[in-house]
Amino acid sequence: MNLLVVGASYRTTPVATLERLAVTPAEHSQLAARLLAQPYVGEAVIVSTCNRVEIYAAVSGFHGGLGDICTVLATHAGYPPGELANHLYVHYDGAAVDHVFRVAAGLDSMVVGEAQILGQLRDAYHAATESDSAGRLLHELMQQALRVGKRAHTETGIDKAGQSVVTAAVGLAAAQFADGLAERPALVVGAGAMGALAVATLSRIGGGPLAVSNRSADRAVRLAAAYGATAVPAEQLTSAVAEVDVVVAATASTTPVLTREVVARALAERAGRTSAPLVLLDLAVPRDVEAEVAELPGVLVIDIDRLATDLPAGPAAADTAAVDRIVTAEVEGFLTWLRGADVAPTVAALRSRADEVVGAELRRLAKRRPELTDEQRGEVAHTVHRVVQRLLHSPTVRVRQLAAEPGGDQYAALLRELFDLDVPQTAQAEVVPDLSTGGDR
User: Fewer Cβ in 10 A, N or C end of the chain?
Assistant: First the structure.
């Protein structure tokens, strides 16, 4: 099996396309099952966040696996496969490992160094585990990616600014007011991880009074209580919007929560009460704010597209360089493990073949020399097995060492050819050119 990453991100894809590609938690198991039903896909992990949708897969062939994944994604998003392909990037084997580790370290995030991606990757891994779509290869990849991400944040200063998509968006909102967001009334719509981070951020900078609204009232009440905010029933959303200057929308809804009609009514209620603009931070994919809302006078919508354009500079070059070094070393370590793992089935097949040959010869000896006692037969068998094992020891140890080096797969292939070994095809690598397109890098 080989590693393949197929994805789309804010760097390569308009938000409208990301919306259609987005995978909700309710859709995860069904999409994973569709991926595993494809002939070339053996394992799959689905990562879907506000600014990326990626499939990490173990495939038995590059071209076949790529075609299978593109077909499933196109069907999911309602696109012709050829049209969707223009928005996708592809990473294979070593480049795939490098990409996943860079994502985990925060180097590929909209806000470089943000730590939220680790939680999102962990959630994706858990979902894959629950749907049984991650096998040995992706289990190892995800565990190592999470470890690499932790190293990046522990050993470097890449996240010392404490930035995230939420804090960056709140910072852009604060710039719309002369006195920032201190004591500005704000509403957070959504009580998931991003909504909770938004409430914590607004509370920390002195925004308020704060209100929280969520489709599940219980979650809104719990989140509001933790920060001294007010929980607002979902059916009172219009009135809640009318009472604030800033709204952070971060739900998992598949349709807009803040429609033109809702915001227009809120603006009507707000008229005469304040001259401040109504700033809507839409951090959801699919979008929570209907596109037509941006046309309303007195409203400023800041969504993922605008964030990608207006975000301030990221961490210092020294910090990103330090993380780059960590990622480079960890990628090489993982590839060394992977090459060793690839040769293991060949070594096992060689030892199994040796056992078969020894067994056949001992049975032939038993027929030719029936007068041998059980003790004598046992002594002969022990001696023959020992000779064969000693003969195989050095070559099998050496082939593992050679396989761990770049290009080491040729040694396993040579063993298979020399000894006519039958090794399952899924355990062997397909050699293709490096066709990675680092469009999101």
Answer: C
Task: Judge if 238 and 95 occupy the same domain.
Answer: no
Known catalytic membership, residue 70: no
CA distance 110 to 121: 15
Per-10-residue mean pLDDT of the chain, 441 residues long, equals 92 86 91 96 94 94 94 92 88 94 90 85 95 93 95 82 77 89 93 90 90 92 94 94 94 92 93 86 91 93 83 64 91 82 77 87 90 89 88 80 69 79 56 38 32
**Residue 353 located in a structural domain:** yes
Q: Say which DSSP state 22 is in.
A: -
Q: Rounded to two decimals, what is the model's pTM?
A: 0.71
Helical segments of 107-186, H only: 116-130, 136-155, 165-174
Contact present, 217 and 191 (Cβ < 8 Å): no
Inter-residue contact 63 to 432 (CB < 8 Å): yes
- Cα pseudo-dihedral 191, 195, 196, 198, rounded to 10: -150
Q: Given the structure tokens 């991400």, which residue do they identify?
A: 149
Q: Are 299 and 360 found together in one domain?
A: no
In the set 4, 47, 50, 161, the catalytic residue is 50
**Domain of residue 48, residue span:** 2-155
CB 377 within 8 Å of CB 366: yes
Query: How far is the C-alpha of 263 from the C-alpha of 271, rounded, in Å?
Result: 12
Side-by-side strand order, sheet with 230-232 = 230-232, 210-213, 186-189, 246-249, 278-282, 299-302
